[in-house]
C-alpha cells in the first residue's frame, strides 16, 4: 500500500495488516492440521483405524472457532469504519468536490475571491500532469470534503488516503481527514468508478504544502481568480415524440396532397 499521509489512512493500514495476520494465522493452523493428519494417520496396516464421526467436541470447535474469528474481524471493521466516517471535528479547510464527465472541480467554500466567488479549480480530461486540476491542501490540518456529481456516479480516490468515496448525483456524500505534518509533496488522485468514455483520463493531482504556503496560495487565487474551463452541463433527455400526433400529422399531410391533386385535375378539365 502507498505510504499513508493521513491519520485515517494509518488506521486503514493497521486494519489491513491485522487482517493479513489473522488470515496467515488461520492458514497456518489449517495447513498444520492437514499436514499433521496426513503424517500421523497415514496407512500402516489393513486394520480400520478408530472412527471419530459424530465427535461433538470437535464439531463444536469447527463451528465456534470460525464464529469467533469472524466476530473479531467484524468488530475491528465496524470500529474503524465508524472512525473513518466521523465528520464532527471542526475542519481547517472545506472543499466541495464536483465530479463530472470527465474531470474535477474543487471549490474552497469559505475562501472568496475579489469577485465574491469561492476560490475554485477545475480541469479537463487529460493524462498530462501539466493539464490536470490541482487540489492544494495544507499539511497538519483537518480537511472536510463534500462530494457531488451532476451526471453519473464517480468515485473520489486518493491512494495515499487509503480511502475512496462515491460522488452520486442527487445524493451528496461527505468525509474528512487529518493530514499529517511533514508529508508535503504531490500525490495522484483519480476516479475509481467506471464512468464512461474518458474514465481513464479523469485524473487530478493532490499537492500538500505547508500551512504558510497554503495561505499564500489561497491569497494568490483570491487576487487572481482562475478562468475555469467549461464543464459540460447535464442535458435533459429529449422526450420521445407522440405517436398519435405523428399519425395525425401524416394523415393531414396526405389529405392536403389529395386535395391539391383534385384541384389540379379540375383546372386541367376546364
TrEMBL record:
EC number(s) from the headed UniProt entry: 7.1.1.9
Catalytic function, reaction form: 4 Fe(II)-[cytochrome c] + O2 + 8 H(+)(in) = 4 Fe(III)-[cytochrome c] + 2 H2O + 4 H(+)(out)
Protein name: cytochrome-c oxidase
Subcellular location: Cell membrane
Major site of localization recorded for this protein: membrane
Role noted for this protein: Subunits I and II form the functional core of the enzyme complex. Electrons originating in cytochrome c are transferred via heme a and Cu(A) to the binuclear center formed by heme a3 and Cu(B).
Cofactor(s) recorded in Swiss-Prot or TrEMBL: heme; Cu cation
InterPro entries: CcO_II, CcO_II-like_C, Copper_CuA, Cupredoxin, Cyt_c_oxidase_su2, Cyt_c_oxidase_su2_TM_dom, Cyt_c_oxidase_su2_TM_sf
Residues making up the signal peptide according to the UniProt record: none
Pfam families attached to this UniProt entry: COX2
Molecular function GO terms recorded: copper ion binding; cytochrome-c oxidase activity; oxidoreductase activity
Domain of life: Bacteria
Any one annotated GO CC term: plasma membrane
Cytochrome oxidase subunit II copper A binding domain boundaries: 90-220
GO BP annotation list: ATP synthesis coupled electron transport
Record domain Cytochrome oxidase subunit II transmembrane region profile: where: 1-88
